[in-house]
Amino acid sequence: MTTTRREFLKNIGTVTMGAVTAAATGPLQAATPDGFPPKRGGDPRHRWAMVVDMRRCIACQACTVSCSVENQAPLHQFRTIVSQYQVKDLDRPEQPVALVDLPRLCNHCDSPPCIMACPVRPQRATYQQKDGIVLVNNEMCLGCGACAYACPYGARFVNSETHTADKCTLCVHRIKAGLLPACVESCVGGARVFGDLRDPKSEVRKLLARYKVKVLQPEKHTRPNVYYIGMDVKFEHNTDRINKRG
Amino acid sequence: MSSKRREFLKGIAAAGGLAALPGLAHSADGVTVLPGTRGKKTRDPVTGNAPGPEFVIDLKSGKLTPNPNQQVSFTMCLGCYTMCGVRVRTEKASGRVLRVAGNPYHPLSADPHLPYETPLAAAFTSLTRYGESGLSGRSTACGRGNAMLEQVTSPYRVLTPLKRVGPRNAGKWVPISFEQLLEEVVEGGNLFGEGHVDGLRAIHDLKTPLDPANPEYGPKANQLAVFNAVGDGRDGIIKRFTFDAFGTRNYGAHGSYCGLAMRVGSGAVMGDFAKNAHGKPDFSNCEFAIFIGSSPGNSGNPFKRQGRLVATARTAGKLEYVVIDPTLNNSSNAAVADRDRWIPITPGSDGAFAMAMIRWIIENQRYDAKFLSQPGPKAAEAAGEANWCNATHLVVVQEGHPQEGHFLRAADIGLAPAKDAAEALYVVIDGATGKPRSHLEPAAAALFYDGAVDTPNGPVKVKTSLQLLKEQAFRHTLDEYSGACGIPLETIQRLAREFTSHGKKAAVDAHGGMMASNGFYNAFAVLTLNTLIGNYNWKGGMSPGGGTFPSVAAGPRYNLVDFPGKVKPQGVFLCRSRFPYEKTSEFNRRKAAGENPYPAKAPWYPFSPPLLTEYFTSHFNGYPYKLKAIVSFMANPIYGHAGLKRAIHDKLKDPRELPLFVAVDAFINETSAYADYIVPDSVMYESWGWAKPWNGYLTKASTARWPVIEPAQAKTADGQSITMELFLIEVAKKLKLPGFGANAIAAADGSLHPLDRPEDFYLRAAANVAFAGKPVPDANDEEVALAGVTRIMPDVRKVLKPEEVRKVAYVYSRGGRFENASDAYQGERLKNGYKKPLCIYNETVGTARNSMTGRRYSGTASYMPTVFADGTPVEKVYPKSEWPFLLTPFKSSLQNSFSIGALRLRQVRPDNPVGINSADAARIGIHSGDKVRITTPGGSLVAVAQVLDGIAPGAVSIEHGYGHTELGARAHDIGGQPQPASGNGVGVNLNDLGLSDPRREGLSTLGDWAIGSAVRTALPARVEKV
């Protein structure tokens, strides 16, 4: 791994896209999955999600920086990034390498392992709202880092200023005001589409109906709610983390 | 994170989680851990330190309620020189900028941008979740545009006038008053205890020739040179001072070390060396594009708009494209691999590729014969073409003929009166009769002709422009071209076929990646491809840009360019531009003495604009003459111009070599670090200006740059912020120069108005914009308040006439004035098209001579290898056996030349490791992360290697924007206070590896052979593991 955020993997073969699809309509139920603590807060009439159209991403990192400015996370700790990879198609070795731009953020999973890892009781410091947003209350958080460790996406970190768990909130403060998350507002290519899975007329529902989308690490059964258009099947199982462990 | 915490974390992992521990407190490692933040408390336990939202929108009614503690205003970004319209969100109480995004009215930030008549509240609503309008209506700032608000509060800002203490470039300064600054700069004296220094008053002499032996050099006033970084909406007043008031000839901007090779190459194609017009594809309707030395989505101008357009066009539109570049960059996206391809090319060989394309297209007659054969405006109109070109015009090719290289004129063959000999009445061979006739007749003409035409003085040998291009293209075989550029022959043929298979909905685009020593001819060749398919002014073809509304102009309300006593500068530019060597006294003296007048002492550049690349070395060499003072604005050639620092460092730090250097800059950059004085300035959202997009947009746009926050730097005794503008105004008034002070600006009604403050200038420019064509509506009080224009209303009322006030407020409330996106096309044509004809043969180029060889330049595109000033190939002096690599720089998608201090940006890519091709790296035993020494004939540096497949073999790729030695990288001492230390010096700067020209005398940097632009591409290099 290089020392920069621009992480390059090489010689990842490519195969036909769209061969595997995520359960695009899976998360529409509102019930709490078995064994998960009850959801709290949020409006159960909504289920917020993001569809990322990777074909439109230009890796300008406007999302990364606008999130950093809006949410004032400490420097070098990221709630969202765009990872980049140089890939070579081993089936078509005559073709030159190409770039994969992979926008990353918390998947706001339907079965969020981070919440299960939180040791705080009776109410957990990290929790899911009824609208699906996974949040942390830093006044309840121990800063133990168990949730950050449990997240297979590395979407969490222990904030170096507060010493508590930190992560993407989907800009819940902006959503509540009727605005868009900072990263979506600033997405130059128009790759990030945010919306309500419970609204059948929403743009995210239209995209999910039209495209075969994928999610990251479906084999972890976290049931993510960040869906990717144009993601190669090999990237589904990409275990790179947004923030490194420890 | 402390090591203690890290261990704790590991402990958890080992224990498999702490779920069994009791809820509120527990102990581990002997430390009692309590819930809740033990660090800094945040504003909110869930949303941390995010500020409150700027608006609340009722999603049922769409009613927008602004946050009373915040303000959102539309002004201009200067995160790079794309100059996008942005919305700046500030906290009212503190004036702190909270975040920046795009202006939805602005074509560089939204696509399509909102209709101009949209009410302001509706514009804000369009950005929200109301009806999900904010998704398609999003108006963005790029990564850098999001981060550059840090400039405002940077600890490295110059906040007061500074005067150097001790030697130049020692990094020691003392704050002085504005009054002292003005007095010393204008009056001169023994300013530093080093002897007398002439002030600007002594230099301001418009009568005495600076060199009586060479009267064409002009008056002594030319011994002041004024350097500007770039036209950023504030250059109007700088040019007014420099040319029109002080009267020096010597003004230079950054173009010559930015993308000038492309610009002058385009100027040759577009027949416009005055402005070096250039085009961009109409991305939205283009079907096939070739980007070469250009990378939409990665860089270029406009960076963000091109990124948005290419993302949409390759996803929802019809666009397929290739990016031909030594480095794989963000233009490529594997998710649309069927739409875009990267094609690696050997650095500096773009011309070989383009001439191969031209040869194949001519051989296979794949050019647009209908377009090319229309010789003039009437023929083009009759044929339904949207423009025309000179492919059929006859060029005199008879050796030694007085008209050699010129177009044959109608008067030359008796088709027009002799008095019209110089008129633009050209001769073509009629397509039907085969007889010579005027280009103005409405019929097609012969494309190829090689023969003689009868004139009253006998027959003259002529060829058509296209014939000359064909001969240039056929000088080499396709295999030879393929070998030179490293692109397989089949690929070239496939691209040529594809390029000529879409009618006018195809385009070739070049930009700043052409800066090799053969860059001009490379760009000329690449851009000639567009002419061959006749794609200008068509939907899906090439656009010259959308144009602008008059601002700093002889506008409908005020004349901001003409004034009584306006000076017309005289004489030769110090950089020897726009002046043929053959017209100099020196040439005539040498010729009269029976000498061969060639080579000149240094290259002259007959068709180049003023070249900042040649000013410094020309001055220190004293050829053609020497300066006495330099005033520069934000310019940073020492960082940005390859090879300059090494060439002039010793001279520039010696005040005897350059007596006075005043820099106006909000930061101490690599160049202003050598200054004698630094004048503070406003930055970003604190400043005034009127900008326009460079290109890549289809509808008229004028961007209002206005202070939405209070400038942070010092104020004068009467409360004015010290800025570049105020400095120039006060200097001009002290020198009693025309065009400044009382009665300097004339209104359309004849009344005269003062130019005492920046507002006097920019608000009147705003009135011009507001009243251009059909005047804009009046703003109401509600919109003035909602847009935060209230802040500047006292000045608007004070400066402008009552009938102008509300219209100007309307313009500022929307961040400028913008033609509606619906006006982009008229049927299949672009509404704002290019009016001049295109050139297959450029007469200015074809009649000019290279001052080092005395030989005429090729008037058409032509292939040449990389060369030195006398035409010697670079490889002859620095052979491949000793210098096996070629450096290829690329523009960062994140950093510009002055953004390194923005920490929220730098965290994304904290360094710029250099890219080396995998096979090359394997051969010399280099792995990613290794330290490598890169050496060119001009310098050496150590960098971290990144081994990649996405680099052309033999190329070493370096990202711009890093490797600073100033802008905080060095802590200066300001009045005894050291600046804080920083990590701003991270990475390497390719320009530190730039070359001097071993075939030139005196100090030099390697320049383009024809036009003198800086050379940073295809520098010969060695790479060794350290």
Task: Describe the model.
The complex is a heterodimer of chains A (246) and B (1026). In chain A, 17% of the residues lie in helices and 17% in strands. Chain A has 246 residues and is of the alpha+beta class. Chain A has a domain at 26-111 and 168-236: 2-Layer Sandwich (Alpha-Beta Plaits). Chain A has a three-stranded mixed sheet, with helices on one face. The radius of gyration of chain A is 17 Å and the shape is globular. The model of chain A is unreliable at 1-29 (pLDDT under 50). In chain B, a hairpin with a 5-residue loop joins strand 6 and strand 7 (97-102). Mean pLDDT of chain B is 95; it is low at 1-32. The radius of gyration of chain B is 30 Å and the shape is globular. Chain B has 30 helices and 43 strands. Helices cover 24% and strands 17% of the residues of chain B. Chain B is of the alpha+beta class and 1026 residues long. Chains A and B meet through helix 1, strand 2, strand 3, helix 3 and helix 4 of A and helix 1, strand 3, strand 7, helix 3 and helix 4 of B.
- How big is the Rg of chain B? 30 Å
- Overall number of strands of chain A: 9
Q: Choose one word for the global shape of chain B.
A: globular
Assigned CATH architecture of the domain at 26-111 and 168-236 in chain A: 2-Layer Sandwich
Overall mean pLDDT of chain B: 95
Largest sheet of chain A: 3 strands, mixed
Determine the N-to-C terminus distance of chain B. Answer: 32 Å
CATH fold-level topology of the domain at 26-111 and 168-236 in chain A: Alpha-Beta Plaits
**How much of the polypeptide of chain A forms β-strand, as a percent range?**
15-25%
Rounded Rg of chain A: 17 Å
**Gap from first CA to last CA of chain A:** 16 Å
How is the quaternary structure best described?
A: heterodimer
Helices and strands of chain A, in N-to-C order?
EHEEHEEHEEHHEHEH
Top-tier CATH class of the domain at 869-1025 in chain B: Mainly Beta
C-alpha geometry of chain A: globular
Helix content of chain A: 10-25%
- Average pLDDT number of chain A: 87
